[in-house]
Amino acid sequence: MKWQKKGMRRDLLFLLLVTTQSGVFLRIVRSHRGFAQFEIFSRAYCHIIGTSSPRTRLIPIIEMLEQQEGEFWMLETARHTHKTIEAELVNIVKEMFDLIDNDILPFQYTSDLQVRFLKLKGDVSCYLAETSEQSISSQYLHQTLLAYTAGSQIAHANLPPYDPCCLRLALSFSTFYHKNLDKEKGFKIAKEAFDCGICEVEDLQLETITEINTLMQHLKDNLTLWSSDENDKD
C-alpha cells in the first residue's frame, strides 16, 4: 500500500511541475498590450490564479506527508516545486501590474474601466498578501491598499454611488480593511457605500438593478456580520 501512495505522489509532483510551464493564457494577456479588453484580461488572470491556487494549497500537504513518512528526497522535490510555482505566479502578476500601470490606465478615459482595472490590481495583490510568505506579505498589503484607494478616489469623483463598479470596489475594499488593517474603518467604508447607494437606488430603472441589489445585499450582510461580531466581544 505504501508503494502505491508513493507512486501517486510522484505522478502528482510530476504533473504539478509540468503545469507550471503552461503559458497559454499568459499569451492572451501579453497580446492585449496597448488596449484594454477587460473581460479577456481578467479571464486570463482568473485562469492563471485559478490554476496556481490549488497547487499552492496542495503542495504543503504533500510536504507534510513526505516528512511524516521520512521520504526526504521527495520532500525536497515538493519544496522545489512549491518555490517554482510561487516564483512563476509572482513574475506573471508583476507583468500584469506593469501592463495595467503603463499600457492600460494611462490610455483609459472612462472612469468605470479605470476603477475595474484598479480593483483587479487590488484583488490580485490581496490574494498574494494572503498566500505569500510573511516576509513579502506586507509589500502586497501595501500594494492592495494603494490600488483600492486609487480606485475609490476615481469612483467617488466620477461615478454615482450605486454604480456596480463602485459597489464591487467598496465591497472588496471594506473586506480587505476589516480583515487586514482596521476593522472600524472597514465597517465605515462598507456603511458609507451602502448608505449612499440606498438613497438613490430605490427609484432607479436600470438594466443593472439586479446586480446593484445583489451587491447592496452583500454589503448589508457584511455590516450585519461585523456588527454582530463586535457585540459578541462586548
UniProtKB/TrEMBL annotation:
Pfam families: 14-3-3 (PF00244). Residues 9-234 form the 14-3-3 domain. It comes from the Eukaryota. It comes from Blattamonas nauphoetae. This is Checkpoint signal transducer rad25. Belongs to the 14-3-3 family. Coiled coil: none annotated. SMART domains: 14_3_3.
